[in-house]
Amino acid sequence: MPRLSNPWDSDPILARFLRHWMPEQEYKTVKEDLSRFGGRIVQEIDGLGREAERVLPELKQFDAWGNRIDHLIVSPAWIRLKGICAEEKLIGIYYVLRCFFTN
């Protein structure tokens, strides 16, 4: 299996693009954040993603008495990945970037 490297550190084109389009202070902040997050991908997220794909979610629709419950059962890896999305504010990044690139 190929060894995963930090996506930020191994993509000079992305760095040049951001450096060109962003003010210097914002670029410095983003650069540090992306480097840190890239390391987290290698150290934590990649393994969790593989585990989440190996143990797929399961829908339990009924309890032991036949009552409809619609309970989604997910692996601990899925739960941890959800937590990482919240920690890294991945959902909110879209809105920040949309404002940045439309102005």
UniProtKB/TrEMBL annotation:
InterPro entries recorded: Acyl-CoA_dehydrogenase-like (IPR052904), AidB_N (IPR041504)
Pfam family, one: AidB_N
Residue span, Adaptive response protein AidB N-terminal domain: 6-90
PANTHER family noted in UniProt: ACD11 DEHYDROGENASE (PTHR42707:SF2), ACYL-COA DEHYDROGENASE (PTHR42707)
Protein name, per record: Adaptive response protein AidB N-terminal domain-containing protein
Lineage: Eukaryota, Metazoa, Ecdysozoa, Nematoda, Chromadorea
